[in-house]
Every structure is written in structure tokens, then in C-alpha cells.
């Protein structure tokens, strides 16, 4: 009998790509979604839709009871929110609710999708799972919320209430980014020639499908209680933008700005976002603060222990650009 996987956030960018692989591997899939969720990413998949909300513990019971495996992918991935508590409600209390229900019903194997945002940085050099980090290093509510959620998850694993593994994806790009993510918005802005300048920073970019596959490698080969970075290539932000421009055959962005000169615009953007409905700030204070450090990471542990093999980043950019052009 095929096993059943519960995927929280299955309708989202990463969650839907995990669901696609799960179906190819003959798993039964339960997609936990909210009443208001956009199900565009799931409409062609043979999955069981289960309506629930991570903030409502009792609503999780029906889906958790049916599953042997849980991929906890759902998260509020925003660098700014009008109500900061929304980010913590989803990322911290939502995770804790799922863990409480899972430990009560048990036994479950849980793969928790965290983020490289919770990891330490090496001041321009490459970081890994062991790089020292403290809560005080977390910039912004997204990072803080994911850091807290990771700590809660680790406590549940240490106390043997659950059998769990933590995954730390870097910056995924590729098809299915409907919402879109902050990085998806950047690609859109470049394609629409609405990004006049760039800042001198660096990130690790990865194809979303490599991250999705990494979840199954962790399920099959990962060690309980361990953390694994699922990344791709470390790139300067300017190089990333240039690769987008090269593939899309559009002019490159040539103007570089120091983050310190952009803070007044970021504060103004956030002010308008507070007073206007349905206005998302293109520039945020936390985003600028994060850009002061290069966020480079190594996936060597996942490569050695899981057999993780991310593809060339040009392939990821091609898939992301093609999909955005088709959908937007």
C-alpha cells in the first residue's frame, strides 16, 4: 500500500512542486489548504484537498490522522506585513500547533521546511549548518519567526515527541510562483524593466524543483534531528540580474546604489503600505538591512549524505523567466 504524505502549503510555490514529485513516486497526497487558498497549482494533480488552518489546532486533526509522513512547507514568506503578528501566527504558532497534534496522534515522520534565513552568516564567506548563530542576528520578522519555529521543532525532536528533520532551502526560483515570492517579484520587475538599480549583495539561488526533490532525499536518507541546506549557486545579485537579462534579451541594469541612500525610500514605501489597501512595498527596511551581508551557503552536507545534486542556475533562471512570461 502506498504511504500517505500530508503537505502543508501544498498549493504554494514549493509545496505544489513537492506534490508533483510525490504523485510521480506513487504516494497518496493530502493537501492542507485554507478556505481562501488559490488552488491553481493543484488543479491538475490527483490529490486529496483538506481544508484546515495551522492557526486552528483542531482543524489539523483530520488530515494529520490520515498521514504517515508530513512535509510542513507552509509559511508566511514576506519581508513586510501590515500586521507583524500574521507572520508569527503562521510560522511560529502554526508550526507549534502542527507539532502538538502530530505528537498526540503519532507516530509521524515530519520534514520541516525552514530556511537559510535562520542560519549564521560568515561575513562574505560561505556558511553551513554549523555556522554559529543567535536570535540577535535575525533581521526582520520573517527570519525571527522561522528561527523561533526551528527551535520549537528541535525541542520536539530532542524530547522524542516526533521523528523530524529540518531542511534549509536557499532562494528558490522556477515555475509555479503565483503569489509571487520576493525573488519572483524581482524577476518580474527585471522583465518589465521596472528595476532601475541594484545593490551590492549576494545570495544563493536554487531551482525550486531541486529543493522539492531534496525533501524526498531527506525522507529516504536523512538522519533524524539533522539539518540540511538545500541550495544551488552562490551569486552576486548583479550577476543574477545579468543572467536574467541575458536570457530574456533585455538591457542590463547598470546603476548600483548603496543601501544607505535607499532607506528614506524604504520608509516611504512602508508608510504608503500602511495607509493604502492592497499596496505591497517594493522596497523594505528589513530587505535593505539584509542586503548588507552576502548570504552565501554550502550544500555539501546534503550532497554527501543525501545525494543532493542541484542543477545549473542558468537552467533555473530559464524556467523561471519562461514561466513568468507565460503567466504574467
Describe it:
- The structure is a single chain.
- The chain is an alpha/beta fold and 328 residues long.
- The chain has a domain at 4-179 and 206-234 and 295-312: Rossmann fold (3-Layer(aba) Sandwich).
- The protein has eleven helices and ten strands.
- It has helices spanning 13-24, 61-66, 84-105, 140-158, 182-191, 208-221, 237-248, 259-275, 285-290, 300-306, 313-327, and strands at 4-8, 28-33, 48-51, 69-72, 109-113, 163-169, 171-173, 202-207, 227-230, 233-236.
- Strand 7, helix 5 (182-191) and strand 8 form a beta-alpha-beta unit.
- The longest helix has 22 residues, at 84-105.
- It is globular and about 55 Å long.
Helix and strand topology:
Blueprint: E1 4-8, H1 13-24, E2 28-33, E3 48-51, H2 61-66, E4 69-72, H3 84-105, E5 109-113, H4 140-158, E6 163-169, E7 171-173, H5 182-191, E8 202-207, H6 208-221, E9 227-230, E10 233-236, H7 237-248, H8 259-275, H9 285-290, H10 300-306, H11 313-327
Parallel strand pairs: 1-2, 1-4, 2-3, 4-5, 5-6, 6-9, 7-8
Antiparallel strand pairs: 8-10
Helix pairs in contact: 1-6, 3-4, 5-11, 7-11
Looking at CATH, which topology of the domain at 4-179 and 206-234 and 295-312 would you report? Rossmann fold
- Report, as a whole number of angstroms, the end-to-end distance: 41 Å
Secondary-structure class: alpha/beta
Low-confidence stretches: none
Q: Within the largest sheet, what's the order of strands?
A: 3-2-1-4-5-6-9
- Apparent shape: globular
What's the overall average pLDDT, rounded? 95
Residues in β-strands, percent: 5-15%
Q: At the first level of CATH, what is the class of the domain at 4-179 and 206-234 and 295-312?
A: Alpha Beta
Topology order in helix (H) and strand (E) letters: EHEEHEHEHEEHEHEEHHHHH
Number of helices: 11
Total strand segments: 10
Rg of Cα set: 19 Å
Q: What is the fourth-level CATH superfamily of the domain at 4-179 and 206-234 and 295-312? A: NAD(P)-binding Rossmann-like Domain
